[in-house]
User: Fold gamma-butyrobetaine dioxygenase from Lates calcarifer.
Amino acid sequence: MWMSTFARFALPALQRSTSAMACQALRACHRPGQAAGLLSSCLKSMQLRGHQTLGSASLPVARQSVRHVRALDEDRLMEVEWEDGGHSLYPFTWLRDNCQCPLCTLQSAQARKLLMSDLDIHTGVDVVEVTNDNKVSIVWPDQHTSVFDAEWLKKRCFSPAARQAMQEELFLNERYYWDSKLRIPTADYQEVLHDDKAALAWLLALRRVGIVYLRGAPAEQGHVARLAERIGYLRLTFYGHTWQVQDKYMANNVAYTSGRLSLHTDYPALHFAPGVQFLHCINQAVEGGESEVVDGFHMAEQLQREDPEAFRTLTSLPVDFTDTGTDYCDFMLQSKKCIIDVDAEGRVARINYNNATRDSVLDLPLHQVQPFYRSLKAFVDIMNRPENVVTYSMEPGDIVTFDNWRLLHGRRSYISRPDRLRHLEGAYLDWDEVMSRLRILRNSVHEDM
Ligand code: OGA
Ligand code: NM2
Ligand code: ZN
Ligand code: ZN
Assistant:
């Protein structure tokens, strides 16, 4: 079932564009657990944001042939003319720095051996030529020789379009923004564990959509750790390697009560908050306990449009967060974070907000206190709009996996009975490890095709 779905929708997509569409293999459901169409249909209701590089970004580079090379000595650039008529320029300094020979590169680690102290950043070249096997050869003034593969060079072309395509291939920063109409991409837990194509589709959708639902896990502890091992390793925090969300006596966190959790990101009290979160439902409450999620990037963009002043405030004022207690060991955390982080281009990059751990210490001059509250209220009002919130109810055996730098999540209050205590097991990972596994899976799935 999985294979046929995948073969029809994802494999051709993977051949064309690795990142964009493998996630179509995932089934998508309005409420996880209901049968529904493919992710492609849910994507129709979403808006594609970020770099618009879908077509070119992840195209495997076609066989590249070099027609001609020449040195532009004046500008200290090498110009490559490609068979398809295109041109690329490479600075001499960069070429010398990235010589791939065994003296300059430790091939077993694909790491640079050449030291900066041995790099002449004003070097010229003696000879540049195309070799018989279509590589580019450079002889440097000291007679050291570098040989560059055509495809290797093409991927590293300095044109804005090529750089953008390479960055998208490496980081997959293109996202689908969504609202309450999202049909959460859903996959089978066992398939994700045992099938590389299923695992790749899972991680691609986790990156692009920010949330993927997995069904079919046994309703017992240990499976968020098993899932983390599928990727690499989990992120240890003061709440342990994995943690048990239950109504606890003398709870050290509001999550460990039966109360409502308003929409939040986990752990803003850590300066480096966990990038990815897994929550596995082992037992659901008799009443209540439903889950809620919001696309924080989408809602922050709405705030920017509708209330630029509030957006400016929340992207510029650092807020104190605090968390004190004992769990894995005793802890006393303090952090300072803007509630909305933007990247160098001003795009929303991360949300840091948990009302429970926002500190009573508020390091602001008096006159900024009321404007801060007004801005936070505007943020929360947009976040809570019914058209932004996706609600679902987890059943035993379900695992939700989501981007904790992007999504806000919450739960309704619940009533447990002693014979049916609500119990979720959670774990954190970081995006570096998840992206690492995603790139490896993408390469191995490609090789199999
Ligand atoms: C948490 C949390 C969700 C839930 O523990 O931080 O968000 O459904 N839990 O209990
Ligand atoms: N838990 C669920 O920011 C937070 O305190 C989130 C973390 C206790 C591990 C809750
Ligand atoms: Zn060399
Ligand atoms: Zn949480």
About this structure: The mean pLDDT is 89.
